[in-house]
Amino acid sequence: MTELINKAEFLAKAFDLEVDMIEAGGFVGKYSEKVCPVNHTFGEGCYVREWNSPAGMLVVSKVHKIAHPFFVLKGRISVLTDKGVEIIEAPHHGITPAGTKRVLYTHTETQWITVHVTDETDIDKIEEEIISDDPATQLDELIYARELFSTPEDS
Q: Do the Cβ atoms of 47 and 38 come closer than 8 Å?
């Protein structure tokens, strides 16, 4: 249960960081693609997303609805999740669990690729399938955790 609360608290803080970045004039969401270009490729039944970032970027990822593989082909990057900080150096691969949101810092120029199962080729529709930008949806875990720990006096 503690893990569930930690994840929900991390998500809340990551969303707060995104808001702070927007208020400070940072590039967030699709606007970040001006600095960190994204290339889209399609295969039979899959979508490949290639994210390229210069060194020195602080980025907050979107929340992933579906588990999927990722590959770091170039670079060194610090990755903060609800599990803590991991420093990833290329070449590296892993699986992004559903519900993951990351805070990333690129120490060097970085190339990060994700692969998603879909027959869709419209990027907006794909993002609807695989990404959740709604903090309320992602914070359902926090609400659930609070309900588990609430007492009659809390009502």
A: no
